[in-house]
UniProtKB/TrEMBL annotation:
The keyword Isomerase applies. It comes from the Bacteria. It catalyses: Couples ATP hydrolysis with the unwinding of duplex DNA by translocating in the 3'-5' direction; ATP + H2O = ADP + phosphate + H(+). It comes from Paenibacillus enshidis. SUPFAM superfamilies: Nucleic acid-binding proteins, P-loop containing nucleoside triphosphate hydrolases. This is ATP-dependent DNA helicase RecG. Keywords: ATP-binding, DNA damage, DNA recombination, DNA repair, DNA-binding, Helicase, Hydrolase, Isomerase, Nucleotide-binding. InterPro entries: ATP-dep_DNA_helicase_RecG, DEAD/DEAH_box_helicase_dom, Helicase_ATP-bd, Helicase_C-like, NA-bd_OB-fold, P-loop_NTPase, RecG/Mfd, RecG_dom3_C. The gene is recG.
Length: 683
């Protein structure tokens, strides 16, 4: 029996016609293996219950005795059949709709098993069906799998067919996990697990089966990741950065503050990668305000002092300008040149800049996606940093990287991805985490109020500004829309100018020109604007430590991670900061989301709550996340398993016999075919 289940066509299963085979293809099932791995998404519970323990509204199955004569009422084509039954000494009425054919089988004294919805007050069961023990039962007493079906494929046909496939081919299901792991975690064999997933005898067996398959799924995923990394490690001849420690220390000492311990730790991790000949591919994650920019600055400094150029790519012009300014300030004493390249740099100016860059006269270039245009050349690109990576499209990062010869890559994200998710999503990257904010920061207090409290919010704004602070007011829309009844920035700007004649109120949105935006931001940085009415153009990266109040209009219009990003614009200095969410969400989930924001200002916790409320797909936004989809594993619930699986995968791969083992043979096809492994996962 050397035949692989992959090669067995569906028609080999008794009862599967060519027609049905075609219909199964629509579900992505084209061979016996795929059918056997078509798992149910839930179970219907037909296990027998006792009426003494059931609750009102429960869907239950009970065995009972028929106590009377059935009564059938017909209404045209519809019918209602009732009968007195007794179970556990309790008399109750069972009612079936449109099951008139059952009537003749309901003979007094006969045993019956009925399933349906229980109403304890009226001692009544609204039954969906019935089975009779004297004729043999198939469903009663079991957990029945529920598959995703449709078209001509019905639930009962699917159950029957998978059962049949298990009977014919179940013995051929191969084991995929190494024996040592099966022993280590006392996992049940794969064949048993797959059979039990389709027809668990009881909860325990179902759980054991799931535990085994979840581990397998996560382990094989991690194994692919780690195998890929191991294969590429030796191959890649990355840039070797040679700047010595003393030089870098000098720069670090010139910073206006001392690095936090968390920053020191990631700094070492990054410099270590940069000095080695491996190609660095590192994700730096840290909550908003944790101080990632300065880490990028140190890395960029190191590349310049090693004789290379550095590039920093950011998603918005506002951020590009801000980073250029702050890097210029930090690097000026060291004679390092920093240039800005965005879409607004054009003509002569752009030409000169590109020429200088190509000649190596510019050490560091900061920019938006303007950096990845075709005519941008570097003399010797040593390090590519992307800030706010989640904002970039799938290909943009890799284009930038190809502008050098295997430059080191540092990817920064403030999207607070719980560590385990990061490891999963970026399984072939190294992950550094800044786990604490700079000392002396006061946690941001967050309030959620309804629209009718706007007067008090205005009072709050006035108080903060009168104390010398600044505030943001964020709107979902730029201008009035007849489709959406939400606050728009242009109208609110006018209202605020009227409400606060003594303050300078600024307006910022995406439809202004770059020069206009720059001017408004300059005034806001300089505290010549105290109140900034804006759209989400300030969502990422903007750093004005004197701003202490963030007011978000129609906050329920934004995602949780977006709200957290917006909130992160305040709480960046020594003053206490506040975030006020103004929203009247109708739905329960909407209210939960607002509550979640008020309960924590820890980005990891926000992300976790968001995952719970929305599911991971949504959180990361479309397919760009590169987040794998698992069949059984749940990234939130199975966190620990994922980490465990990763450790096991790492140690298996370190064992040299792995590369000649059947398990590696099985992975090899995958490693070659899957596109994600050609560059790096996030590209
Ligand atoms: P983010 O991680 O959100 O990009 P930034 O790099 O913009 O955060 O840093 C937020 C603010 O904290 C900035 O004003 C920065 O100058 C300041 N900062 C960074 N590191 C420290 C530190 N170790 N001590 C004090 N302030 C710091
Ligand atoms: Mg930042």
């Amino acid at each position: 029996m050397n035949m692989k289940l992959d090669h067995i066509v569906l028609k080999q299963i008794n009862g599967v016609s060519a027609l049905k085979e075609g219909e199964l293809h629509a579900f992505g099932i084209s061979n016996v293996r795929e059918l056997l791995e078509y798992y149910p998404f839930r179970y219907e519970d037909y296990r027998l219950r006792s009426l003494t323990e059931v609750k009102d509204g429960d869907k239950i199955t009970v065995q009972a005795k028929i106590m009377g004569i059935p009564v059938l009422q017909r209404y045209g084509k519809k019918s209602r059949l009732t009968c007195k039954l007794m179970a556990d000494e309790w008399m109750f009425t069972a009612t079936w709709f449109n099951r008139h054919f059952l009537k003749d089988q309901l003979t007094a004294g006969r045993e019956i098993i009925v399933s349906g919805k229980w109403d304890g007050k009226r001692m009544q069961l609204t039954a969906s069906d019935a089975e009779f023990p004297d004729k043999g039962t198939t469903r009663s007493g079991t957990l029945q799998p529920v598959y995703s079906v449709g078209g001509k494929i019905t639930q009962s046909w699917m159950r029957k067919t998978i059962n049949q496939a298990l009977q014919q081919f179940g013995e051929m299901i191969p084991e995929l996990l190494p024996q040592q792991l099966i022993r280590k975690y006392s996992l049940i064999p794969r064949k048993q697990a797959i059979a039990a997933i389709h027809r668990p005898q009881d909860n325990r067996e179902g759980q054991e089966a799931r535990r085994r398959m979840v581990f397998e799924e996560l382990f094989l995923f991690q194994l692919k990741m780690q195998a890929f990394r191991a294969l590429n490690r030796g191959k890649m001849n990355g840039v070797v950065h040679t700047a010595d420690n003393a030089t870098i220390r000098e720069f670090v000492r010139s910073l206006p503050f001392e690095l936090t311990d968390a920053q020191k730790k990631v700094e070492l991790e990054i410099l270590h990668d940069m000095r080695s000949s491996n190609c660095m591919n590192r994700l730096l994650q840290g909550d908003v305000g944790s101080g990632k920019t300065v880490i990028a600055a140190i890395a960029l400094f190191a590349t310049v002092r090693s004789g290379f150029q550095g590039a920093l790519m950011v998603p918005t012009e506002i951020l590009a300008e801000q980073h250029t300014r702050s890097l210029q300030r930090l690097f000026e004493p060291f004679g390092i040149t920093v240039a800005l390249l965005t879409g607004s740099v054009t003509g002569r100016k752009r030409k000169d800049l590109l020429a200088s860059l190509q000649m190596g006269l510019i050490d560091i270039v900061v920019g938006t996606h303007a950096l990845i245009q075709e005519d941008v050349y570097f003399r010797q690109l040593g390090l590519v940093v992307t800030d706010e990576q989640h904002r970039f499209g799938v290909n943009q990062r890799s284009v930038l990287r190809r502008k050098g010869y295997n430059p080191d890559v540092l990817t920064m994200t403030a999207t607070p991805i719980p560590r385990t998710l990061a490891i999963t999503a970026f399984g072939d990257m190294d992950v550094s985490t800044i786990s604490e904010r700079p000392k002396g920061r006061i946690p941001i207090s967050t309030y959620w109020v309804k629209h009718d409290k706007m007067d008090r919010v205005l009072g709050f704004i006035s108080r903060e500004v009168n104390q010398g602070r600044q505030a943001y007011l964020i709107c979902p829309l730029i201008e009035e829309s007849d489709k959406l009844d939400v606050q728009n920035a242009i109208d609110l700007h006018i209202q605020m100018q009227q409400a606060f004649p003594d303050f300078k109120v600024g307006l910022l949105h995406g439809r202004m020109t770059a020069a206009e935006k720059e001017e408004v931001m300059r005034l806001f940085y300089a505290n010549e604007i105290q109140l900034l009415v804006s759209t989400t153009v300030v969502e990422v990266g903007v750093d004005v430590p004197n701003a202490t109040l963030m007011v978000i209009m129609d906050a329920d219009r934004f995602g949780l991670s977006q709200l957290h990003q917006l909130r992160g614009r305040v709480g960046r200095g020594e003053h206490a900061s506040y975030c006020v969410l103004i929203a009247d969400p109708k739905s329960e989930v909407g209210q939960e989301r607002m509550k979640a924001m008020t309960e924590t200002d820890d980005g990891f916790e926000v992300a976790r709550r968001d995952l719970e409320l929305r599911g991971p797909g949504d959180f990361f936004g479309t397919k760009q996340s590169g987040l794998p989809e698992f069949r059984l594993a749940d990234m939130v619930a199975d966190f620990e398993v994922l980490e465990q699986a990763r450790e096991d995968a790492v140690s298996l791969i370190q064992d040299s016999s792995f590369w000649t083992s059947p398990i590696y043979e099985g992975l090899r096809d995958y490693l070659q075919q899957e596109q994600i492994f050609q560059g790096d996962l996030i590209d």
